[in-house]
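Reposting from the mailing list since nobody answered there.

I have sequence plus structure tokens for a pair of proteins and want to know whether others read the tokens the same way I do. The first protein:
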Amino acid sequence: MNRSKLVAIITGVISITLAIAYLIIVQLLDFRGREMIPAPTSILPFLW
């Protein structure tokens, strides 16, 4: 197996691992059950 194929396989494995880890983290954060509430805008100063 030449070097370019090996680099491509290693890069693919790293990419898939990062994608799966990201999906797991998103699912764990979603299972917390908290509703996503936007930040209050009434306290922000107006810059105009």
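The second protein, same order (residues first, tokens after):
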Amino acid sequence: MAQEKSFDMQEEFAGLDFHSIRLEQGFIRTMETLIQQLDKSIWRASKNRAEASD
């Protein structure tokens, strides 16, 4: 069985700077959603349409 790698998105993207806390938090949230469902498209992995288009 393949070992799953765990990602800490806050640490992984620590150097990220969109000059907007809201955009940075949205990006991190989206990446957390996508990493859990790598086999799906962004639209299918997203919880709702708003999250998919952030």
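Reply #1 (J.P.):
I read it the same way you do. The chain has four helices and no strands.
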